[in-house]
Structure formats: structure tokens, C-alpha cells
Amino acid sequence: MVHSAYDAVELVAGVPGRIEAVASHAGKLLVAASDSEGFLRGSDCSLRIYSSPASSSEGGGEIRRDGPYALERHEQRFWRRPPLAMEVSATRDLLLSLSEWVALHRLPGLETVAVVSNKTKGANVFAWDDRRGLLAVGRQKRLTVFRLDSGREFVEVKEFGVPDILKSMAWCGDNICLGIRREYMIINSMTGALTEVFSSGRIAPPLVVPLHTGELLLGKDNIGVFVDQNGKLIQDGRIIWSDTPASVVIHRPYAVARLPRHVEIRSLRAPNALVQTVVLRDVQKLVQTDNCILAALSNSVHGLLPVPIGAQIVQLTASGEFEEALALCKLLPPEDSNLRAAKESSIHIRYGHFLFDSGSYEEAMEQFSDSHVDITYVLSLYPSIVLPQTHIIGEHDKLLDMHELARESSDATDEMESYSLQLHESDDKSPLEVKKMSHNALVALVKYLQKKRSGIIERATAEVTDEVVSGAVHHSLILSEPYKPKKPNKKRAQTHTSSIAREMATVLDTSLLQALVLTAQSSGATELLKGLNYCDLKICEEFLKERSEYMVLLELYRSNEMHREALQLLNQLVEESKSEMENTDFNKKFNPQMIIEYLRPLCRSDPMLVLESSLYVLERNPSETIELFLSENVPADLVNSYLKQHAPNLQSTYLELMLSMSESGINPNLQNELVQLYLSEVLDWYKILKEEGSWTEKIYSPTRKKLISTLESNSGYNTDLLLKRLPQDALFEERAILYGKMNQHLRALSLYVHKLQMPERAVAYCDRVYEEGAQQPSKSNIYFNLLQIYLNPRKAEKEFEQKIIPVASQYPGIHKSSSAKFKGSRTGKKVVEIEGADDIRFSPSGTDSGRSDGDGDDASDGGPIMLNEALELLSQRWDRINGAQALRLLPRDTKLQDLVSFLEPLLRNSSEHLRNYLVIKNLIFRANLQVKDDLYKRRQAVVKIDGNSMCSLCNKRIANSAFAIYPNGQTLVHFVCFRESQQIKAVRGANSLKRR
Prior knowledge:
The protein is 45% helix and 17% strand. It is of the alpha+beta class and 996 residues long. The longest helix is centred in the middle third of the chain and has 49 residues. Its main location: cytoplasm. This is CNH domain-containing protein.
């Protein structure tokens, strides 16, 4: 980094004598020079004041570069000895000098203000704090602090002793940094506390240089070290000079050092690179002024006048020192904010192009981001990214205008031309290197776009919100004028909101998605699409299809609510995955479960689309699909109707799984639908077997098992409709279950016993009815009905005839001729006629009553009784049957030995109940006697009344008056008092009731 930061201009030449010190005030040079006749240190020293002709005429206060300075005033023998130091206080118009002692003169007249001769005689160094008016003077091993009082005299504040002779010093806040021989120390100006910092160099004396920030630059041979006000090292704070400097001045943003052969200028910014070298030999003094640096030689004074900041920026930019150029932009005057912004933006752009061409893509994106250029400007560097067509005016014209502003405000040549927007690649690069470079460039683009995205999306969202609010307000205005006369409105005001923010968001999201996919960050592209995005559908769809990024494409469809297209693609991918079994990765990636997961959020918003798209997975994953319908509360009637129309083979599967998975069951209509489906399939199967002649009641197909199980476990179906569909000569078990649901238990038991010849089923049927408590309060009738079927089938049929006729009269579908058949036929004939009657004659809610608890028409036709089965029932269910009724029903020739298993536990149980009853009776009698005894004891209480017994109410003696005693046995009152108190309570109670 070498450029021209300063121009060396000779301001004064041919000064007679030797220049001892130099300063500047109001654009004039103050030069302290020894007499020309001798250069002895003890000789007198004069003060020469030089001024520029231009500054004299215009009254300027800065050192100018136009023309040599001429002698304006000469004060001979101003000092008796050459001054060791001289400093001007511009804010106070004072000249401080240290010769024999510290003297203070008023400027510009040079009147003597104050002389500190006592405490400063023989001093060799001082430090002035112009803001607070404090002066620190070092003399031998003493440090004295003075305060300028009222601008007229110095008042001593503190005096401290120091370890050795002071060589240099500078104020740093309330502290003073001291350079003592080979060591630096910090002393507190209030307390005098000393703190060692570190040792100085071996060659040069200690050098303390204050910075405008309050920090310090301490010299250590050819190294300058930065420390804070307390002497602690500052990280990355070090300047390495090319030689050991004799003195250093700070002129932001540079540090200028006086070296033996030249003046060296370095940057204050790390890494403190060399800026410029000014060849001036034997420089005696370097003095900082407001606008320049004065370099005093033995008999001439040169001014290091800074080159304008704009020109320096141009130089640095042209030489590729972009960071230094940006740092200089911060030093432009605040009033030139537009110029500074233009220069900074231009430098950031050039720096970004330079880094981009060098392969530092991420750093380049940071520069483009700082330049605030439009994202389309950056995207033009990537020809592989397809951008949507928009009406956005790029920032190129704005940038050109800013560059033009920067060029017009500086004297430099045209150095702000932008680089080419194409990505240059050398021909000698291998394809692998080109691919790597392209990947890294795209990764940097992803980070750049992600950084820019939040602000752009926020503006686009705000734009959409404004349009919605504006539209709502416009709509409300229209609705609020229903009664105003309608006049033809030729010019209707329309609120138009610019869509620039949305177009910019579309460009960004579309580019970001492409960059993510090109850098193998498909998951990031998916996450982008899951949130709010403005991706261009057409461009992204074509891009993703070309690269087979189906997961991202599915998310693109989902974000744009193109669910039908997404589901079609999913079905296609699942089919391809199934056909390409050798590609295991593909098979794992796409499976029917993905379709189910995609359908899940659509169940409530678009159930019809879910039904249309679920046929594929319903065939392959029926349980998962049904679980989806149930968990997402898809209307069951809608699902059933759709399947009935489009996939009837899946209807029963759906209803089965729904019935098994739903805890609360399904509604009666769907239960009836399921049973009807089962029955239809069973009837078709029955017809086929009947035609083949292989039908028996004990053959069970899987569907028939499901039918029987559903009939037994559910009750929401229509029994009348099912009975109509059952054949008269088959499916007796199903008919028996339906009779049981209608509480026609005798008919059901008759079918189990005589048609199916399954007595064990009949017993199980009775057990189920008994346990369910369907026959409360006489539950034993159900077993008695079974005994009647076993032992007296004719009587059971007669009782059935007596009950079926009045029941049938309630239904208009039953004809009188049907009832006549019951009276004039044998039992077997009656049974056949009843079985052939229309099943609608029997109400599904009708219940059996009386001893013959049923309306059975399927009883035996007068065959032999089933004594063995009856005895077995009695022995197994003796505790559930009325023994007396059962014995009367048994045949007279029944052997008593066959009844042992029935009578023995029955009699034992009866005896046990009798004994328990007697025990309970005796216990109750005993308790009654105890209560009576307790009553007698309590009635035997004795109350003794003597002459001292007092009434608790009136406090008078009871004597021979009638008395009453309260239940506690101790409180005695006159009977009259007691009666009056009761009357008073009654009256008070009545009054309180009236008040309420």
C-alpha cells in the first residue's frame, strides 16, 4: 500500500541561524532560531513569524501550499536560551515555551502572560492538556502539575517524585505516561500512584506519543506499541518502522515518524502498512498542526500537506487497496455524505469484483452486500441462474450516477468504472477446477441471498398487507353507500400499490432455490418452500424436473396448493419405485406412506381430494389409510359413499377397519351397511354351494364368520331387513342371532336345539342373556324356556300361539288366514307355516314374558323329549333355575337318581339359606332386646330437688312447683317458665318467617 498521502512543500527557506523549534498559529509559522553568528546552546534565540501572502489577504487559519512564506515579524532575543519545546494553544491563543523556565505569551501580540521561574527552572520536558488547562513539567527527578488559572497565571497543583530523570511524557486522561531512561511508567495525577508498563528500547530514548482516542504509542527501538490509558497492551497494536524514529506525530489516519534519512508515513490501521516515504534528510523537528505536519530542518521548514481524501481514495482503489480506501471514506466531511456513500459503494463493488475474480467468493458477497446494490446486479454474475421476467429497474443506472458524482467531486481520473458482470475463467483451468470454483461461488451466493432475504421478504409481506387493507377499506366504502343515488362515475379512483418488493422477493427466492439445489442442499430448498416464499412456479418447476429433484418439487407444489399435481407425481414415483426394486435407495425414498403423510393435512381442507387420491394407498396400505381417515376425522358417510361408488371392493375393508379401530364404534347406518355387505357375499356363496349340493349349516367361510361375529357384537343394524333377506331353509345361526337381538329368545333357542342341533350353543345363549340381565327381575325364565323346548315342546308351541296372534294383529301385513292356520293344524304344520310367514310380523323390540318367554315358531314337531340334555342343564345351572317349576316340568317317570346332581346342591343351598335366615333373625331379635334394655336404663334417671334448687330461666326456687328437666339431666326449670319460653320461641320463629 504505497500512495501519495502527503505532498512535501518547502514553506520557509534560508532561515538565518539554526531552527530550534517550530509551531503554527492562524496560518502563520512561528520559528524559534538561534542567532546566525553562533550556534552555541547558550546564545540568545529569536522568534520569527512567517506568513503566506494569500493567508494574509484572506485571513485563513491553515497552512497553505501556494507560494513561499515570507517573514512578517522578527522578535530578537525572545529567549535567553534556545527553547527545548514550544507549543501553541489554538483555543486559548497562547504560546507555551520551555527555555530556562516555562513562559506563557499571548498571541498574536506576544505579550508575556505568565512565567513559572521557581518550579520550572532547569526543566527539560513538559506536557500540556489544552482541554483542562493542565501543565505537567519534568525537572530532574521531580514532576510538577500546574493549572492555568483564569488564563493569567499557573497555580501549582501537585508535585511528585519519580525514580529517574524524565525524558518524555504525555497526558492520558487523569494519568500521565512518563518515559524515564529505559522504562515507561504511568502516574496518577491526583494520587501519584506509579505503575510500571514495560522497558523502552536499548538504542533510542523513550518516546511517548498521545493519540486522539486517549491511547498512547510507546516507542521501543524501531517498534511502536499501542497501549491504553492504564498502560495495558492493545491487541494487534504495533507499528514496525524501517529504522528507529527520533520522534513521531499522529495525523489521522497516519502515523508520521522522523527517521535519519527520511520521513516515514504508516497507516494507523492494522497491519500498519507503509503508506509513503518522504525523502527529507536531517529533519530536526516534526510538529503536528490542524491541517498538516511541519518538518523543520536546520534552516528551512517544509510542510507535509495531505493530499485530498478523494484523491487518495482514487489512488488506493486503482492500486487494489480497497480496505484502506474504505477506511479513508470514513474521513470525508459529514456534509459530503452523498459523496461518501457514492465512493463507498463504488469501492465495495470494485472490491467485490476483484475478490470474485480471485476466487474469494464469500468475501466478494460481503462487499456486494455492503455496497447495497440490487441483488440482480450480483445474480448477473451467475449465468446458470434463471431469473424471472420482472419490471424491476436495476441499480446499474443508479450506480453510474453515483460514480459520476464521485468523479465530479475529485480531481482524479476516471477510476470508478465497474468491472464486467460476467464470470471470467481462464482457458488453462481444468474442468475439475472450473466445477469446484462454480460450486464455491454458488455456496457464497446462497449465503448472500439468505442474508438479504429477511429484509426483502418483510417488505414484500408489508406490501401485500397494505394492498389487502386498502382493498378492505375500498370494499367497506362501497357497502356503506347503499342508499346514495347512483351516478355514472367516469373516473373511479383506484389505489395502486407498487409490486417492486414482491418482484424482488420473487427474484431472490427463485434464485436461492436454484442455488441451493445446485450446491446439493436440497433439504435447505425444501425448508425454503415450507415457509413463506415467492418462488416463480414455472421456472422452479422446470428447473427441478430437469434435475429430478422430486422431493423439492413436491414441496413446491404443496406451497402453491397444487395438491392434485403433487399427488399425481407421488403416485408416479411410488409406481416407479416399485418397478425398480434393484434401486434400493429409490425404493426407500418413495413409498405409499409418503402419500398418506401428504394427504394428512388435506383431510379437513379438501376431503374429496383426499378420497380421490387415496385409492392407491387404500389398496396397498388399507390399515394406514383407514387410520388416516379416523385420526383426521374425515366424514365416515362421505368415505363410505365414495368407496361404494368408485371402489366397492374396498368398502367392506374400510368399514371393518373402522369398526375395529374406532373406540366409540360407528353409526348404525354404517353398521347396517357392513352387515348387508357381508350378507350379500354370504348369500352368493350359499347359492353356489346349494347348486353344487354341498351346503351344510356347519360350513363357515371367512365372510360368514365375520357376519356372525358382527351380528353378535353389534346392534346398530336393521334386523327386519336382514330377516327378510335370509333364506327359509338355511343360515339358521344368523337367524337365531337376529331373534336374540329382537328378544325372541324361544325362537332363537328352538333354532339352536332343533335346526342346528347345537344344545351347547343354546346353553351359551341362555348364559349370555342371564349375565346381561335382559330378563330382570326373573332372569331364570330363559333357562326355563330351554327346559320347555327339551321336555315339553308341544306346550311351548301352544304358549307361542297364544302370544304370536295378538302380536301379529298389531301389524297390518299379517292376514287373518294366517291366524286360522294356527288353530286347525298339527304342531309340525304350524311350525312350518310360521317359518314361512313374513318376518315383519315380529317387532324387533318385542320381549318374551311369562313362563314361556318366547314366540318361537321353529320348535320341534312333536318328537321325543330331550331328557338327557334337560338333566344336564339342571345339573350345570341349578342355581339359576326355579327348582319347583323345573320338577313340575319333568316327566313323572324320571328317576330320582338322575336328579341327584340337581337336587343335592339345590337342597344344600336352600338349607344354607334357611340357616342363614335363622341366624340373621336371632341377631336382629338380640339387637332389639339390647335397644329395649338401654331404653329402660335411660328412663330410670333420678333427679333430686331440694330447697336450693333454682329455675334456670327465672332464677327462683322451684320448691313444690311443677318442674321440667332438659335432656342433659341437669338443667331444671319451672314448668310454667318452660312453656312460656317455648311460646316465645314459636312467636319469634313466625316473625322471622314473615320477614323473609
